[in-house]
Amino acid sequence: MTLRGTKIFLRALEVSDLDFLYELENDETLWEVSNTTTPYSKFVLKQYLENAHRDIYDVKQLRLVICEKETNLSIGFVDLYDFDPKHKRVGLGIVIFSEEDKQRGFAAEAIHLISEYVFSHLDAHQIFAGITEDNLGSIRLFEKCGFKRTGEKKDWIFSNGKFKNEYLYQLLNH
């Protein structure tokens, strides 16, 4: 199965993920990258989970849960967004929730697994990601996974009273 690695596996969202999703979506430190400005209620997130089964070709996005193989515990999410089958591209976002888990190679394995899925099952030509200039951990992660910085959006993100540049990273399927 494409979505199983050595340390993690990726799975579809379940109703039982509500509390984990609620905690993550309401973490203000992540709002900058998710373009969120207000908290989410459990009611709204429950509705989202009830519709999470919809096809990526219909809704143009897909969120999968990153689970540690050894414990089956949910440790993060990987998001595909702005899926464009005509131009064969899709955006990628990833979050590992605990600082401890960020140092264990889970994110790199998740990016590898989702990239294989995107190229083999969605027939995409490229995956792109936007990363703010000060997110050095994500920059290192995506570069380690073969993504190349191909552009820069000046003053793209306004956060904490100042503008930040956002870098465009791409991984092409050759």
TrEMBL record:
Signal sequence extent: none
Domain N-acetyltransferase: 8-174
Protein name: GNAT family N-acetyltransferase
